[in-house]
Design a protein that fits this description.
alpha+beta, Beta Polymerase, domain 2, Four Helix Bundle (Hemerythrin (Met), subunit A), eight-stranded antiparallel beta sheet, four-stranded mixed beta sheet, 11% strand
């Protein structure tokens, strides 16, 4: 909309407001007039928004939408201003001291507004505030506030604007974006002139440093990487604020007022300028859609809004990639382009600073002891400038495309950062990365050196990815660049996850994570001959995500084709492919199977086959889980992997058999007897006789002794409902052990009490004694760093469990009052799945359920299993973001497996109903009374 059109619209709206006043006798200051004026403005605002949204759907123009909303706001503010002057305050001739300029600043000053944006205004005064100026500003502001708008405002003289701009970068930035809106134009012109002469002149370096420091602090606050799967479109890395920061810096340094001037100044090429506009337009379109859709100033692209945005923006699903995933991939590619533009503009600024340095300083830079450039050993194609690698000439890549990879190799070898000019030239030379370069043995050797560097391979892999090199040199990697997975489990895009997994391996190898990963750290030195295999497998393990085929199988096929090109032998290629094909096996078995069950270990060993594969797989699994995101890895998962590894290694070396199991159980019984030697002989013999072999083999002897003292003390005090807690800082797990009379719904009520307290359950060990007692241990995620705080928390949960079991608390009330739906879960739908398997264990049927997580679901599932007259022997609880995968080892009440097909069908139907929320909503209502009767008996 042109300025003339905006003014015409303002005049029209002003006339409509005047007409309202005339219907009330012409005076606009009365309450009735103001109410009618406000109602009319609300109607106009709603129509403006509706029209802008309609146009956004029609042409998709994000910048156009933001400019339309800004123009509409200009029209409204000018009409309010004129109406106030003419009919509220009835002023026609202003004195010189009463004149003021209404100026738009901040985002509004850039003439772009999202539907929920703040309206930033500044009332510029000639000298000091006058009564009329104060009344006018107050009228305009209150009218805007009553319209439901968020308004930021300041009232300042020109002198105050200049003084504050020099002292405060935020104010300086706001005024840098100022735009004349209405009122006394001469005041605005004077402010603009003085701002350029007294603030901007000779302060560019200080301003740039402040804005870059502000940007870095914002990135740190928002999560450092631009590849978070729930990014902030305004303040996140690669978002709108980054583009605005670039233009602020360029505007301040080059003294330009329009983005197109950056081409004339030589900062951006025409194609780079077009990229700037494309990025800005896309981000504005997404932001405007987001505000329209949510009805508020929402800036985070949370899971709950991503599907809706993908639909509004017209994305369609493709095989292997959903519409929402295609939308988010586009978003991350745009964020990556914003990073490229940052490097380009910073390179131009650096060059200009050198040119503008005083002559004497330039002379000093030519002296031998102060020379900026240094040679790099072993090449004439690259130089070092201020500890950063740069090209010696503009044709080094064209003359030898291998130099594109070689430059990253030198950077890794010598620990060099990259000069922005070099990265800009790489970006402009990406077409040189073709099949000839990909098949060049030199290039592939250099790449493998980078991937397996003993320094910091992730650093240069990430630089290669940011520059666009990695995706072109490894085309299959290019397919997963910026690819997100629409779930709450993976925190990063696929490419970022792969690079982070390599980084975890590197840090374990360098001893940085020795205390956190003792097993992997101890195994790596013996795998020196296979470290290339391990690095390659980690780099490629998820490379086939987003394809219709299972990504593990498809990834192995990619490795079989790619590894020979990278210099791997046939045997090494086969090993890399196997690791990728089975990279989820160890994690699945460790977290979802009973590791004390002989069949679990036998099946796992049959899959892995060799000790070498076992060692490589456990390290790969650790790195994979650790790289998923913050909070996903914990010491408990590490302990499960270590247990599985030790049991499998024992079996592979011939030490695991059923006979051995019986011998081990007897040895465990004798060890417990020995540890209880201070008990009376008859008492300790009776106690040890209470426990079945499964307990003695599954529980560490230290915990067995602790349980013995706990049971002895509780029964000695006639406490038939009791709990005890134990923390494990390394595993980040807290154990709550419950002693109670055995009851079918015991695990269900314990799970409900834990969930109502906000505790995340990771597993459960369910044991019964030969004399009818249940000894159940629940494993919950640690919440507090301090042991004292964590013990107090766990003790409170234990008391809550006791209260429910004793009938003092009513479970449905607890669930209703204390349990909240996790944020974002409503965005997902998961088809429930129930599998009953009789081949995974020799003694138990294994029931595995998958479904959408929700508060109390474990309690509902275990309650349903009890209703189905099933005896739960162990439970293995795993949560992958929004999805629960819970595994239960069960028998019928006679101790047999579930073999009847009709009974299996009924179990599946009941559990599917529970997973879909159609089961009994109060599955544990009768527990308290039942347990209270058990206690009384």
């Amino acid at each position: 909309m042109t300025a003339a059109q905006t003014q015409t619209g303002s005049d029209t709206l002003h006339a409509e407001l005047i007409a309202i006043a005339d219907r009330h006798g012409g005076d606009g200051s009365g309450h009735a007039v103001r109410s009618e004026v406000l109602a009319h403005l609300k109607s106009v605002l709603a129509e403006d928004r509706k029209r802008a949204e309609k146009q956004l759907f029609e042409d998709g123009g994000g910048i156009a939408c933001a400019q339309n909303l800004s123009d509409d706001m200009d029209r409204m503010i000018r009409a309010i201003y004129d109406f106030a002057m003419e009919r509220v305050f009835r002023v026609t001739n202003l004195s010189r001291g009463e004149r003021l300029a209404l100026v738009a600043v901040g985002g509004y000053g850039r003439a772009t507004l999202a539907p929920g944006s703040d309206i930033d205004l500044m009332f510029v005064l000639p000298y000091k505030q006058t009564p009329l100026g104060e009344q006018l500003a107050e009228y305009i502001l209150y009218m805007l506030w009553d319209l439901g708008l968020t308004v930021g405002h300041a009232t300042r003289s020109i002198d105050e604007c200049i003084r504050l701009s020099k002292a405060d970068t935020t104010i300086c930035t706001a005024i840098l974006d100022m735009r004349y809106l209405y009122g006394e134009r001469s005041l605005f012109d004077e402010l603009e002139k003085r701002f350029q002469e007294e603030v901007v002149q000779n302060s560019a370096s200080t301003f740039i440093q402040a804005k870059l420091a502000e940007r870095d602090a914002r990135h740190k606050r928002m999560g450092e990487t631009r590849y978070l799967v729930e990014p902030n479109i305004k303040d996140g890395k690669g978002g709108l604020r980054d583009l605005q920061t670039l233009f602020w810096i360029a505007k301040y340094f080059y003294r330009v007022s329009d983005r197109t001037d950056l081409i004339r100044k030589g900062v951006l090429s025409r194609s780079e300028y077009n990229l700037f506009v494309k990025c800005e337009d896309f981000l504005w379109a997404v932001r405007c859609h987001l505000h329209f859709m949510t009805g508020k100033a929402e800036e985070r692209l949370g899971f709950e809004v991503q599907r809706g945005l993908a639909d509004r923006l017209g994305y369609k699903s493709h095989p292997g990639l959903r519409d929402v995933e295609r939308f988010m991939k586009h978003y991350f590619l745009i964020a990556k382009d914003v990073g490229d533009l940052t490097r380009i503009i910073c390179a131009a600024l650096e060059e200009e600073e050198v040119k503008q340095a005083p002559a004497f300083n330039r002379f000093l830079q030519t002296l031998p002891f102060a020379r900026r450039s240094q040679k790099i050993q072993g090449t004439h194609d690259f130089i070092i400038e201020n500890k950063r690698i740069n090209v010696a000439a503009d044709d080094v890549f064209r003359n030898d495309p291998v130099n594109i990879i070689r430059m990253f190799w030198f950077a890794d070898r010598d620990g060099l950062d990259f000069h922005p000019d070099a990265l800009q030239l790489i970006r402009r030379s990406l077409k040189l990365i073709n099949s000839t370069l990909r098949n060049d043995p030199r290039a592939n050797r250099l790449f493998m050196d980078i991937l397996t560097s003993r320094k910091d391979p992730a650093l240069n892999l990430r630089r290669m990815n940011e520059a666009g090199v990695l995706g072109r040199f490894i085309p299959d990697f290019g397919k997963v660049v910026a690819m997100m997975q629409f779930n709450m489990y993976h925190h990063f895009t696929v490419d970022e996850h792969l690079i982070r997994s390599v980084d975890v391996l590197s840090r374990i190898e360098r001893g940085i994570l020795k205390e956190e990963h003792p097993l992997a750290s101890s195994l790596l030195p013996d795998l020196e001959a296979h470290r290339r295999v391990l690095y390659a497998a980690l780099f490629l393990h998820d490379i086939a995500k987003g394809r219709p085929k299972d990504h593990s199988v498809a990834g192995a096929e990619v490795a079989e084709k790619l590894c020979p090109r990278l210099g791997f032998s046939a045997q090494e290629t086969k090993l890399v492919a196997w690791l990728i094909r089975d990279h989820l096996t160890m994690s699945t078995v460790a977290q979802s199977r009973d590791l004390s069950d002989r069949k679990t270990i036998e099946d796992f060993v049959a899959s892995v086959q060799t000790v070498l594969r076992l060692k490589l797989l456990v390290i790969l699994t650790v790195c994979d889980i650790r790289a998923v995101g913050p909070g996903v890895w914990n010491g408990w998962k590490g302990q499960l992997l270590r247990t599985l590894y030790s049991e499998a290694e024992l079996a592979m070396t011939g030490g695991f058999s059923e006979i051995n199991r019986k011998e081990r159980a007897q040895m465990a019984r004798e060890e417990l007897l020995e540890r209880l030697s201070d008990w009376p002989e008859e008492e300790r013999a009776a106690y040890v006789g209470r426990h079945y072999d499964n307990y003695l083999l599954s529980v560490h002897v230290d915990d067995q002794v602790r349980h013995a003292e706990f049971i002895r003390d509780s029964l000695g005090k006639d406490r038939k409902l009791a709990t005890t807690v134990k923390t494990n800082h390394f595993q980040a797990i807290t154990e709550i052990t419950v002693l109670a009379p055995d009851h079918p719904r015991l695990l269900s009520i314990i799970a409900a009490a834990c969930s109502s307290a906000g505790a995340k359950i990771d597993g459960a060990h369910v044991f019964t004694t030969s004399d009818g007692w249940a000894l159940d241990t629940i494993l919950i995620n640690r919440e507090f760093e301090d042991d004292g705080d964590e013990i107090r928390r766990a003790t409170r949960i234990g008391k809550m469990i006791e209260a429910v079991l004793a009938g003092r608390e009513y479970v449905p009330d607890m669930l209703a009052n204390k349990m909240k739906q996790r944020r974002g879960l409503k965005a997902f739908s998961i088809e429930p799945s129930v599998a009953i398997n009789n081949t995974l264990s020799n003694r138990f049927s294994v029931i595995e359920v998958e479904g959408l997580d929700r508060p109390g679901i474990l309690s509902e599932i275990t309650g349903a299993l009890s209703d189905l007259r099933l005896d739960i022997h162990s439970a293995h609880i795993t949560t992958f973001g929004e999805k629960v995968v819970d595994t239960f080892y069960v028998t019928d009440l006679t101790g047999h497996k579930l073999t009847d097909p009709s009974r299996q069908k009924r179990i599946r139907r009941v559990l599917e109903d529970v997973l879909q929320g159609r089961g009994d909503e109060n599955p544990v209502v009768q527990v308290s009374a039942g347990l209270a009767r058990s206690k009384a008996g």
